[in-house]
Design goal:
The active site is at residues 62, 131. Homodimer. Pathway: Carbohydrate biosynthesis; dTDP-L-rhamnose biosynthesis. There is one protein chain. It is built from two helices and 13 strands. With 181 residues, it is mainly beta. It has a single domain (2-176), classed as Jelly Rolls (Sandwich). The protein binds dtdp-4-keto-L-rhamnose. The site of dtdp-4-keto-L-rhamnose has 11 residues, from β5, β6 and β11.
Length: 181
């Protein structure tokens, strides 16, 4: 397992070690001890989530203002472009984004700590998206920042308009959003 830092402090790319043989492959999709040793963080995960979406579906940019969740995200079918946005007001990279392709093929994971908004767009025909979270879903604390806020300027790999939920269509601009200290 490799852990690669990103320009956003705390956001990490995880590359698992994959063992292939004539039967197929095997890899540890999560190992708490290795994760702590290599990343320096020791998350306690309380919820596992699974969503499946068609090409062009964009979910995000989501966060919880209390019960903020760290998320360890991956794709087991298809591919997505996954994005974290720094919402920590005191961070030198506040308002900046990091994006990476996560796919069933590359088996990469992204660790997004509390303090970030998160979203992704599906770039394959369908994608299954799995993630572990460090706190429980709390609808009353859910917030969203608009996916195409020019103040953030995410370069989404999109052909045309994305498919959004009603709530994501009316998400806040970063300038009006509740953020972290
Ligand atoms: C997020 C969540 C939703 N739900 C329910 C509420 C709703 O009826 C249905 C779909 O919810 P949403 O539209 O919020 O699903 P979705 O847009 O996939 O929300 C997710 O987006 C990605 C980008 C994240 O980072 C996640 O934390 C989460 O916010 O599932 C739960 O029961 N538990 C949960 O943890």
């Amino acid at each position: 397992m490799n852990v690669i830092t990103t320009p956003l402090e705390g956001v990490l790319v995880i590359e698992p070690r994959v063992f292939g043989d004539d039967r197929g492959y095997f890899f540890e999709s999560y190992n708490a001890r290795r994760f702590k040793e290599l990343s320096g963080v020791d998350p306690v995960f309380v919820q596992d989530n699974h969503s499946r979406s068609a090409k062009g579906v964009l979910r995000g940019l989501h966060y919880q203002i209390q019960q903020a969740q760290g998320k360890l995200v991956r794709v087991t079918e298809g591919a997505v472009f996954d994005v974290a946005v720094d919402l920590r007001k005191s961070s030198p990279t506040f308002g900046q984004w990091f994006g990476i392709e996560l796919s069933a093929e590359n088996k990469r994971q992204l660790w997004i700590p509390a303090g970030f908004a998160h979203g992704f767009v599906v770039t394959s025909d369908v994608a299954s998206f799995l993630y572990k979270t460090t706190d429980y879903w709390a609808p009353e604390f859910e917030r969203a920042v608009l996916w195409n806020d020019p103040a953030i300027g995410i370069e989404w790999p999109l052909d045309g308009e994305p498919q959004l939920s009603g709530k994501d269509q009316v998400a806040a601009l970063l300038a009006d959003a509740e953020v972290f200290a």
